[in-house]
Each structure stands twice: as structure tokens, then as C-alpha cells.
Design goal:
The chain contains no helices and four strands. The chain is mainly beta and about 60 residues long. Strand 3 and strand 4 form a beta hairpin.
Length: about 60
């Protein structure tokens, strides 16, 4: 059942060349420093049959 503790966000899936894409809704980015670059990591929990999204900061490598 859906209650007031849950939030639902819907985004369109669209084609781009030979792949499919969607946008990341701004409410999901509340804890991400948008001044820095990030990878978006999608993880699937096969047991729960659910997807999870994580944001990983891209750190500059020190080149010698």
C-alpha cells in the first residue's frame, strides 16, 4: 500500500541512438554537490526485484 511516507517520481524513457535514457529528478540530488562531477550507479537487487541508485563523486587522479 502507498502511504504519506512515500514519494513517487515518474520520468519518461526515451531513445537516443541505439540506447534508452531518462533524466535524474532534482529531488534525488538533494545530497549531491552539483559543483562536482559524479557517476550515477544503478544497482539491481535480484532477491527484492528492485533497483537502487547511488551517486559516486568522480575524483581527479593526480598525474605525475
Amino acid at each position: 500500500s502507498f502511504n504519506k511516507r512515500h514519494m513517487e517520481l515518474k520520468r519518461k524513457l526515451y531513445t537516443r541512438g541505439s540506447s534508452y535514457e531518462t533524466t535524474i529528478p532534482m529531488p534525488l540530488l538533494f545530497s549531491v554537490d552539483l559543483q562536482k562531477k559524479h557517476n550515477v550507479i544503478f544497482k539491481f537487487d535480484n532477491k527484492a526485484k528492485r533497483w537502487y541508485i547511488e551517486f559516486e563523486e568522480i575524483k581527479k587522479e593526480n598525474k605525475k
